[in-house]
Amino acid sequence: MGPLRSAVSDSADLPVDFLEVAPENWIGVGGRRGRGFREITSRFPMVCHGLSLSVGGPAPLDETFIHRMRQFFDLHGILYYSEHLSYCSDDGHLYDLMPIPFTAEAIEYVAGRIRRVQDILERRIAIENVSYYAAPGQELSEIEFIKGVLEEADCDLLLDVNNIYVNSINHQYDALEFLRALPGERIAYGHIAGHYDAAEDLKIDTHGAPVITGVWDLLDKAYQAFGVFPTVLERDFNIPPLEDLLEEVRHIAGIQEKWRRLPAKDRKSANA
Question: Are residues 128 and 85 in contact, defined by beta-carbon separation less than 8 angstroms?
């Protein structure tokens, strides 16, 4: 059991088990807001999910930024750090998550950059399977690319269930088959979120709507296949009343509890 799973299992008295923040939003923040953030990190287990590491980008890694993150993680007792399997910068910041070509060359390039980040941080990180809307220069399947990066970099996986659902519609593959092909032993934690239906065959990952039934079902299948892992509910805008968000958090907890009660051998039997 990793540090995040241990912390979550030890914090059952909290209304939520842990919180996730983007480090870019808080590094260097001082004054009243900085003190308020420090109070929160002293009370809750915290993980960080990055927005601008750009592990697949053409520009050199911003190692100064990575060193600042290491100091930030140490100061606030951050349990874990994850980032996107994408890129968002070249000469400047693109403010979007761009798709990395699914090629063997890209696997080697991205994995080398992830290893360098882990060396500087002196900790393992998790890489998130992202939603994408085009696949330029594709030579490998998405699942081959993800598994290749994880193995070559020897890093962990942030399993985003909604992204699998969105991609399966947009790129016409079987979501459950894709899910079961992932290396479950590398899952550090998970994400679940809502999305926008632009068309019957086009879903946009927005984190701006409630989680739909199909995504809940896929999360259920993920716990069935891999066992229960810590899971973050993402909501970036169209923020509803707190009770509505907590109801979705309770829904996550309910699915987790269902699979916690089953021994691993029974999960495998149900998964057959």
Answer: yes
Q: How far is CA 49 from the centre of its chain?
A: 7
Sorted by where each starts, the structural domains of the chain and their CATH numbers stand as 3-271 (3.20.20.150)
Q: Is the pLDDT of residue 30 over 80?
A: yes
b/e per residue, 4-42, with b = 16+ CB within 10 A?
Answer: bbebbeeeeeeebbbebbebbebbeeeeeeeeebeeebe
Residue spans of alpha helices (H) in the chain: 3-9, 31-43, 63-76, 104-121, 142-153, 161-170, 175-181, 213-226, 242-260, 264-271
Model-level pTM? 0.90
Digit-coded pLDDT (tens) for 93-109: 666 788 899 999 999 99
Contacts of 271 (CB under 8 A, 6+ apart): 180, 224, 225
Percent of the chain whose predicted confidence (pLDDT) is above 70: 89
Map tokens 């958090």 to a residue: 249
Give SS3 for 203. strand
CA 246 to chain centre: 20
C-beta separation of 194 from 208 below 8 A: yes
Phi, psi of 188 (to 5 degrees): -90, -50
